[in-house]
Amino acid sequence: MTSQYYVPPTSKWPIIAVAVMASTAIGAASLMSFGTGLPFLLAGLIGIALVMYGWFSDVVRESMGGLYDSQMDRSFRQGMAWFIFSEVMFFAAFFGALFYVRVFALPWLDGQGAKGVTALLWPEFTASWPLMQTPDPSIGGPTALVNPWTLPLINTLLLVSSSVTLTIAHHALKAGERLKLRNWLIVTLVLGSVFLVIQGVEYVEAWNHLGLTLQAGIYGSTFFILTGFHGLHVTIGAIVLAVLLMRVMKGHFSADKHFAFEAGAWYWHFVDVVWIGLFLFVYVF
Fold first, then answer.
1. Region 69-284: CATH code
2. I want to staple 141 with a disulfide (CB 3.0 to 4.6 A). Which of 88, 93, 158, 217 is the partner?
């Protein structure tokens, strides 16, 4: 029988998504610029959550109703691949900023390289990384650094282990072993949740006892931007895993049709790889 490409009916979700995203952007900009706009921000964030729930619910119903064919499967895979590529570029920008500061900007301020004349700005400055003493004395650096071989190492082991457990769950799904699938997916979600708790503990310690804040020079800002955005992605990944777990417990997915599970696994593995880069270049080197 010839496969028919499924064309979904008109949806209200795109226009609602535009509205709530605009509310989020306006609220965030107002809050950062004028100290107001929190209601717009909260309304936008709640709206985004509701749009995602409603929109993905429609997709799940269509999928479970057998409306999708192999062409739709390819479309979903291509879309997810492009989404992860955009996330790669997102983190590449921040890693690029980190490397630019370390390889170019700081040596220039120390009189090295093609633009070493910038050393005239702060002639007493000596380049080093991590930057404990900033060129401008009015901007204080951190008083101490996070020991990479304590909480960061534990978090690395947790995330690497979570990739292994998620892979075991995926193989169980393809083998039709539903109980094994559920149990290993729960283990993966627990590992991700423990990671977030430990990162929260690390942040409190760094902020209150190490002087490592967003105002602690370029090291403080890059540390929190990189690790903070990664923590946000882990949170999103954990929500995805929780939704997948609920769908598994409802009997969704089969051995040969489970792209939603694969997409969540792709995202989780990507987040794990990014953390390894963070551990090496933010904490260790």
1. 1.20.120.80
2. 217
